[in-house]
Amino acid sequence: MRRDDRRDLGLLLLRLGAGGVLAAHGTQKLFGWFGGHGIEGTGQFMESVGYAPGKASATAAGLAETGGGTLLALGLATPAAGAAAAGAMAGAAAVHTPNGFFNQGGGYEYAATLGLTAAGLAITGPGRFSLDHLFGHAVNRGWMIPAAFAATAAGTAVVVGARTRRLRKAKEGEQEALFEEEYME
Q1: For 149-173, b where at least 16 C-beta lie within 10 A, e where not — what string?
Q2: Which of 47, 69, 163, 178 has the fewest CB atoms within 10 Å of its CB?
Q3: DSSP string covering 70-111, please?
Q4: Tens digits of per-residue pLDDT, 53-87?
Q5: Strand, coil or helix: 163
Q6: Cis amide bond preceding 126, omega within 30
């Protein structure tokens, strides 16, 4: 097997794996498939972690994951697909960051891995075994990479920034205990 064939096969495997996981994860949000909670349940969760309005946030995250993941797996519109999926994972990572890095403790490891894989595929391209290649890379042009990442970064910054402000404002009214309970006895 030639080196180019190995590279293209490797890209196909990365696309199918990461894209499939992202698409499945998104359908949990949108449709309640694979043990998910659908728009209603996911919307309530989104509200509870500071993303408001919850249903709109659940829909946006679900579409970015399902659409981005499906397009990545197919190797179609790879810059936009990878950027959208990476943006969704940046939003997920923001929720898990207070728990540290590792997934076993509720950290952002999983979201970071999926997001970086999607971003890497968006930059590298889908390889020859893809719909982008089949269609002459009509929606996979070099200029689309920075455009997709700029749009995604701007949108993600607005959404995550609004969440951060919302959480900070909610904490303003809370007062921390001046003394620990054991000393008050």
Answers
A1: beebeebbeebbeebeeeeeeeeee
A2: 178
A3: HHHHHT-SHHHHHHHHHHHHHHHHHHHGGG-S-GGGT-SHHH
A4: 999 999 999 999 999 999 999 999 999 999 999 99
A5: helix
A6: no
